[in-house]
UniProtKB/TrEMBL annotation:
UniProt keyword list: Lyase
GO terms for MF: enoyl-CoA hydratase activity
E.C. no: 4.2.1.17
InterPro entries linked to this entry: ClpP/crotonase-like_dom_sf, Enoyl-CoA_hyd/isom_CS, Enoyl-CoA_hydra/iso, Enoyl-CoA_hydra_C
PROSITE patterns in UniProt: ENOYL_COA_HYDRATASE
Name of the featured protein: Enoyl-CoA hydratase
A Gene Ontology biological process term: fatty acid beta-oxidation
Keyword Membrane set for record: no
Stated family: Belongs to the enoyl-CoA hydratase/isomerase family.
Length: 259
């Protein structure tokens, strides 16, 4: 696939996806959304790729959100089934996705990060859902994910004021996992990804799916139904399910196959 608005790099089982429109702070328009949807489709379907990292080109922005200048000039607005950046409406990917936020994460940019499983932020990162200031609302998941991740009152405080939040405050609020010096977000995200890859990818997918589906129902129902979740059943039927205990008994590192 000829990529015009993003870059894809693979390091072993880790896919690094870079939003690449630095001239507009990596803001996204319809063509970028459709391109990224295909990129995430490819990552999800590739059995050799276990973890994805999303970051932004340059040192100023992760993603400034929707390209408002494109929209104001009459550019068509919309995205594919995966949602904003091919990610915010993607609910069928059980592989971990990490946001390496290296600067501004505004509006849809923040919504991309919230749709990821982990957020690693540089000290110069800034987060906000400023849509009400331009007559819009954060309907690419922001108004739903933020309350679920940090609690209703704190989310209301951010959304209704449209205020900017630093990486440090994001860590305190609970939506950021780690804050690192400027310029080090991607390296730190790779460190997290490498640590994840030491575990069985089948177990990681089962865990992520069980967490997500379990949060949709009562605790009692989640525990009762979890062994019927597809990723949990796939884990139990996998070669990794045999390899893990065997490697432990033989006192050696496991050789994960991801199947």
């Amino acid at each position: 696939m000829d990529l015009k608005f993003s870059k894809v790099t693979r390091k072993g089982p880790i896919t690094i996806i870079t939003l690449s429109r630095p001239e507009v702070y990596n803001a996204l328009h319809i063509d970028a959304h459709f391109e990224l949807n295909k990129v995430f489709d490819d990552f999800s379907a590739d059995p050799t790729q276990w973890v994805a990292i999303v970051t932004g080109a340059g040192d100023k922005a992760f993603c400034a959100g929707n390209d408002l200048k494109w929209q104001a000039a009459g550019g068509k607005r919309g995205w594919d089934k995966g949602g904003f950046a091919g990610l915010t409406s993607r609910f069928d990917c059980d592989k971990p996705i990490i946001a390496a936020v290296n600067g501004v994460a505004m509006g849809g940019g923040f919504e991309i990060a919230l749709a990821c499983d982990l957020i690693i932020a540089s000290e110069n990162a800034t987060f906000a859902l400023p849509e009400p200031r331009v007559g819009l609302a954060a309907l690419a998941g922001g108004v739903h994910r933020l309350p679920r991740q940090i609690g209703l009152k704190r989310a209301m405080g951010m959304i209704l004021t449209a205020r900017h939040v630093s990486a440090k405050e994001g860590l305190e609020l609970g939506f950021v996992n780690e804050v690192v010096p400027a310029g080090e977000a991607l390296a730190a995200a790779e460190r997290w990804a490498e640590t994840i890859c030491k575990n069985s990818p089948m177990s990681i997918r089962a865990s992520k799916q069980a967490i997500q589906r379990g949060l949709e129902v009562s605790l009692e129902q989640a525990i009762a139904e979890q062994r019927e979740y597809p990723a949990v059943k796939a884990m139990a039927a996998s070669q990794d399910y045999i390899e893990g205990p065997k490697a432990f008994a033989e006192k050696r590192p496991p050789k994960w196959l991801g199947r």
